[in-house]
Amino acid sequence: MNKRLSEGLWGYLFILPQSLGLLVFALIPLVSAFTLSLMKWDGFGAKQFVGFRNFAEQFASEDFRLSLFNTLWYTVLVVPSGILLAILVAVALNKVRGKVIYRLFYYMPVVTGSIAVSMVWLWLLNSEFGVINVYLKQWFGIEGPNWLTDRAMVIPSIALLSVWWGLGGNMVLFLAGLQGISASYYEAAQIDGAGKFRQFMHITLPLLSPTTFFATIMTIIGSFQVFDQSFVMTGGGPAKASYTMVYHIYQLAFVEFTFGKSAAAAVLLFILILSLTLVQMYTSKRWVHYGD
């Protein structure tokens, strides 16, 4: 056996565990979901092929349309604010003294379980004795809103939690991106008389665009999969004001036991996320700038 063939076999051997994991835990379940979306099944009896009827029922379902609207509204609130805040925090911590400690504190929520985070924020956002409303009244003399029981405030409240929760993860990405920017760019800008703001707008942001692109895609994907916060904090309420697409999938599968409809809704969510990702990939050519 020649050396080149031997190296190739060792390479395939090393990627075999990851390939098996991808096949068993991703590709096979994906195909199974597509197949199940064409069936009528309650989880116990025999499966009945119904074609695209499940998809047609989802498009006609008021609950599906409501969940789509709530998820889109949540995404609009979380993605721009989360990305912008992560960039600003990363820039502020990039060269500050004691930055390791600050990074640790900002990143700690990321490794905290979603249920624990939701329970803490459920207490913070309580309209009667929550910490936020208490301090709003003591410091500013105003009555805080009903964060989780007002239909107009529940999605912004969950979005506030999610921005705080995901800040550390995006901050680490942007810190890595900042460290990859050569100091020579800033030195040249200072010689030309550019101030800090112009350096940020014309050097930092353009050279961070690959990191921004990646963080935006991952944040959008995560925002469309929001479930834990809504499930723990509001149960989809009030009056389904926090009823998201993944909550809708859960409701169909594990409450109503209509697994075919649930799979159809999951496939539609997959197509939506895939479409948005492809659009971002296409439009990234216009604004993502890779350094030399």
Automatic annotation (TrEMBL):
Keywords: Cell membrane, Membrane, Transmembrane, Transmembrane helix, Transport. Residues 68-280 form the ABC transmembrane type-1 domain. One of its GO terms (biological process) is transmembrane transport. It is found in: Cell membrane. It is a multi-pass membrane protein. The keyword Transmembrane helix applies. Pfam families: BPD_transp_1. GO terms for cellular component: plasma membrane. The chain crosses the membrane at residues 12-34, 72-93, 105-124, 163-186, 207-227, 247-279. The keyword Transport applies. Belongs to the binding-protein-dependent transport system permease family. PANTHER family: ABC TRANSPORTER PERMEASE PROTEIN (PTHR30193), INNER MEMBRANE ABC TRANSPORTER PERMEASE PROTEIN YCJO (PTHR30193:SF37). This is Binding-protein-dependent transport systems inner membrane component.
